[in-house]
Amino acid sequence: MPPPDRRLWLLYAIILLDVIVGSAIGPIVPEFVRGLPRPQLWLALGTGLFLGVQLFAAPLLGKLSDGYGRRPILVLSAVGTLLANALLLPVRAGLYFANRGSDGLTNGMYSAVRSAITDVSPPERLFRNLGIEGAIISLGFVIGPMVSGLLLTLGHVPTGLQARYVVGLAIALAAANVALSLLLRETHAQRTGLSRLELRQTLTEAVNVAGLWRRLRAKGRQHPGLLPLVLTQALFTLSIGYYFYFVPFASLGELRMDARAISFFFMFFGALSVAINYLFFTYLADRIPQRQVIGWLALLGTPVLAGYGLVGSSRVALYALVAVDCLTLSLIQGLIEGLLAQRTSEEDRGEIFGLNQAVQGLASFASTLVCGILSVVDLRLPWAWFALCLAGVAYACFYYLRIEQPAATADLPEAA
What we know:
- It is a single chain.
- The protein is mainly alpha-helical.
- About 75% of the residues lie in helices and about 0% in strands.
- The chain has 17 helices and no strands.
- Helix 3 packs antiparallel against helix 5 (about 110-120) and helix 6 runs antiparallel to helix 12 (about 260-285).
- The radius of gyration is 20 Å and the shape is globular.
- The relative contact order is 0.17.
């Protein structure tokens, strides 16, 4: 087997820094809405805005990466993230919402990132490389809160200045990611550009959210098995809305965790997740029946999500549940993405990943709204919603989802 393409490691570094930037500011986000009535609802609305913008941004950036290449989209997204974080320097609620909207526009970069990883991955390494991407994202969730926690602790930053210091750190890291993106060599060999008519059509389709289903059905006819996977992943995305809910639940609920405590919690969560993801996708993912394993992981993870709502003020119980979480539902995303990547071609890979990310954004937006409404009634209720959605993933895998081998392997990426 040839050695991995060097561009793969640069892609991993870009992903890592991007997640670090986003997760570093997570512990201080409640500070932006703390003075507002029902702050948990405002946090949910901010998350919903961030995810909702991706409904048109992800398919647009994915399609553009097919026409003009992955590198320009990654550079554009890195610059956008830098500017979005600069908006947070004055700790104001209005600027927080401006950040959520602008950052959501460039977060569609992950359609280009996954396309680029697939571009440089030979078929026998596809599951492994996309699984490592999931582990890299988990590692970012470790390092982001860790550097924030170290900054606040070792720097003895006063409480009133913590948000500004962390945002300044995020801006510096975002600037570094712009430099990394500029170093990346293009991975997409079949760039044909877009005519004015195609560009106009792409923009029209991007804002036509109602047309998502029609476009997905068309791609499903070209790539058998694609549509059921996209729908299953959308159902799974409804359940993992809890990633965004952890901060308001931990800070505003019975746990009463401050920024430092939240940072240390995510450090533990991410460190354990990255180790388990790396081992699983390096040594097991290619040797198992993926559909059945996804179903069993979802089934075993359902009581974990329900359990989060019952931890009360016990941080010991919270950490114990996170350990089981990392062994079950945290592995599902990488498996589904590997199956999806097998059903793409060189010509439309970015578009398919973009449409899939848009569907995930729609699911996340819906889950965030439901979560926000339920949290106003009781902060524990959203966990019942997340558990119900994950149970639906298990049902879909056992009784609905059928994984067929792609009709041909000619479109799968060759070794670089």
